[in-house]
Every structure is written in C-alpha cells, then in structure tokens.
Design brief:
Layout: H1 15-28, E1 34-35, H2 47-58, H3 71-85, E2 94-97, H4 100-111, E3 117-122, H5 127-134, E4 138-143, H6 154-160, E5 165-171, H7 183-194, E6 200-204, H8 220-223, E7 231-236, E8 249-252, H9 255-268, H10 274-285, H11 289-310, E9 325-329, H12 347-358, E10 360-361, E11 363-364, E12 373-377, H13 382-397
Parallel strand pairs: 1-10, 3-4, 3-5, 5-6, 6-7
Antiparallel strand pairs: 2-8, 7-8, 9-12, 11-12
Helix pairs in contact: 2-10, 3-10, 4-5, 4-9, 11-13, 12-13
C-alpha cells in the first residue's frame, strides 16, 4: 500500500539529526560515542527566562494564542529589531512560529509556484533544499568554495539568477561553515538584486549573536535598505539564548508576505505555545549578559578546535567567523586506506570511519552540497571537544594516505 506522497520522494531526513540519532542509538547500546552531529548549545536556558514562563503559566496564559504571535512577543521582536538591527517594523509585519524552520516553511509555502527557483549558497543548512522540494520549487545550488571564505559573490549570484528565480536564501553567519559577510559584501550582493525586482531575499540570522574576533553584526535589510520591502528577516531564540527546546522563531517582512505566511500557519499549527512566547519575549527584552557569556565560550571552543585540527595531518580548518561549527576540510583523506584495507572514497565514508574508529558523530559535507568536508558542532564543552580531538587525531593517524 502506498502511503507517502510522491512529493516526499526527493526529500531526505535531516543529516545532522540522522547523525545524532545514530550516535544516541550507539550510546544506548553501550558504545562510547561523542555526539558532535547536532548544533545545540550545552548551556541551560537562563533562569530569568524560565521564571517568565513560570509566571505566564501562573497568570493563566495557557489558552489558544493568536496565530501571528502574542502582542507581547511581536512587540518584543519589533523592539529588538529596532534596538539591535536598526530595522523598523510594525507589529503586524512580524510573525512568530514554532522555530525559525517553520518561518522558512511558511514563507516558501506562501510564495512558491511549481518550478520557481530558490538560490542556495553551498554549503547550506540542508533543510533549505528539502523545504523547497516539498513545496514544488526548484533548488538551485550556487557553490561558495572555501577559497572565498564560503561566501556568495556578486558574480556567482548574477550568473545564477534566471527569470524563474523567486528567492535567494542567505544565512548570516552560516551553518555549517561559519561564513561572515562584511558590510561591503552585503551591499555588493544587494546591488545585483536591485536589478531583479521580482527576486525575494530570505536572510536567516539565527546565529546573529554568535560572532567572533570582535565582529559586529549587520542585518541584510539594514545593509540594503532599498531591498527591505522584499526581504524576510528570520531569527529566533534557540541558539543565542540556549532555548532549542522552546521552539520559538520569528520573521519580519513586508505586510503582504507576513499575512500570507500567517494564513499558512493557521492551517498547520496555529499560534505558538503562549508560555514559550512569554519566555522568548523575556529573552529578547531582558538582560543580555548570558548571551555574551555564551558567545565568549563558543569563541574559546572554536579556538581550541582550530588549533587542534591544525596539528592533524590531512585535515584543514580556517577559523570560522561565527556560529558554532567546524566545517573541516578532508580532501587529503580521499583515497586513504584504513587498517582493514578499506579505501575512503568520499566524505560520507570518512565520517562513517570517524564514527566507527574514533567514536565521533559528524556530518559529511555532501549533506550541505560541498565536499570534501565534514561538520562537527563546537557547542560542546571544552573537555568534550578536547577528548574528541584526541580521538580524531588518533583515528586519522591510523590511515595510510593516498
């Protein structure tokens, strides 16, 4: 009996979730596995945020919330965008969803016609492609190699745009590579997009607060104000505030787009849990000391991993400018032979070898459409990362390079 719709045929399960699930299964079976597959902070949600949720529940905020978001949460987003990003929005130009991923889904479902093209900057968050495919769009990959800092160039953007192009998806800073765009970079991309008035821009800024080396964040819509009326700014509280399980994301954009997205959301999930929205509003409105502490810790962890990878022959890692991942180059390991005589032919086989030999769960670069690399999360503690690097060095050292 056929169950799944044909539209799901090209869609794959999340690569990071799959790697993490495999790690958890191995751990449950008694194996000693370090799970660096999922991008999840190891910190607890700050106490004042939890207290806000508790108080909201005590105050009776336990009924159906508005589909677009509670008034308090939407106003918190408006205030945050004005204060931190120099962006002015009305409350009705904001939607609150079950995580930033639902914002992405809402936007694509509300706008894509069959065959519309969506530009994806490889390496990119894998669910971008899957959402586009589910909704009948055509994902178009634009390669952004390591030699260019994994950043999209104006020339590559111009070459990729066709009459069918509907969206460009940007991730600032990016998952998995931690690529960061300068003000000049964003304006140069904006100059190309100015010439294509039907092109919409989705700027996924979920890692906004996780920037290193003194960098300052600039939203795409603030860098290119003339494009604000066709830009959807996407963000959430999961990464910066260690709130992955609360499932609160938000989008801000032109009213017609937000209204269409709300129509989609009304048929899928309706409003986000009111208690979680109260917590998210407290995160945005409250003290930001913990956000800065988390970022400093992530930078220390990045430095540790970069230094250790530099000592492992066959692996490369330029210091990521933001986010909490290491997108590790492994070209020198292609064709390497294991002690069992097996030849590692691609980055998927390399990550399988690392899981088996080193007990480390990682995600192959092919999942992000740029090989040969593999991604590890650097959101784990320094002790865990140090142990992982010890194991990785030992495992790679056992290989006979081609």
């Amino acid at each position: 009996m056929k169950v799944a719709a044909s539209r799901l045929a090209p869609v794959k399960a999340s690569a990071s979730a799959s790697a993490s699930q495999a790690a958890k299964a191995a751990i449950a079976a008694g194996e000693d596995i370090i799970d660096l597959g999922m991008g999840e902070p190891d910190f607890d949600t700050p106490l004042h945020i939890i207290e806000a949720a508790h108080q909201a529940a005590l105050n009776g905020e336990t009924r159906y919330p508005p589909t677009e978001g509670t008034a308090a949460m939407r106003q918190a987003v408006v205030s945050k965008l004005s204060r931190e990003n120099n962006l002015s929005y009305a409350a009705n130009e904001v939607i609150v969803s079950n995580g930033a991923k639902q914002v992405l889904f809402n936007a694509m479902m509300a706008t894509l016609e069959q065959g519309d093209e969506v530009l994806l900057c490889a390496p990119y968050f894998g669910q971008y492609k899957d959402i586009v495919l589910i909704l009948g769009g055509t994902p178009v990959t634009v390669q952004c190699p390591a030699s260019g800092g994994f950043r999209l160039t104006p020339e590559a953007l111009e070459a990729a745009i066709t009459p069918k192009t509907r969206w460009l998806m940007l991730n600032l800073p990016s998952n998995p590579a931690g690529a960061v765009y300068s003000d000049a970079d964003l304006r140069a991309l904006g100059a190309v997009q100015e010439k294509h008035p039907d092109l919409l821009i989705l700027s996924d800024e979920i890692y906004e607060h996780i920037l290193f080396d003194g960098r300052k964040f600039l939203s795409f819509a603030a860098a290119c104000p003339s494009l604000k009326d066709r830009t959807l700014t996407v963000n959430g509280v999961s990464k910066a505030y260690a709130m992955t399980g609360w499932r609160v994301g938000y989008g801000a954009g032109p009213l017609p787009l937000i209204a269409a997205m709300a129509k989609v959301q009304s048929q899928i999930s309706s409003g986000v849990c009111a208690v979680a929205q109260a917590a998210a509003a407290a995160a945005l409105n409250g003290p930001q000391d913990e956000v800065r502490r988390f970022c400093a810790a992530f930078e220390d962890r990045r430095d540790l991993v970069v230094a250790r990878i530099a000592d492992i022959k066959g692996l490369t890692l330029d210091p990521p400018g933001g986010a909490f991942y290491g997108f590790i180059g492994c070209a020198a390991l292609i064709g390497a032979t294991t002690q069992n005589g097996e030849i590692l032919r691609d980055d998927a086989e390399i990550t399988a070898y690392i899981l088996k030999e080193a007990g480390i769960a990682a995600v192959p670069g092919s999942a992000y459409e740029l090989s040969p690399f593999f991604r590890i999360s650097t959101a784990a503690s320094k002790d865990v990362l140090s142990t992982a690097m010890d194991r990785l060095a030992l495992a790679v050292g056992k290989l006979t390079l081609a």
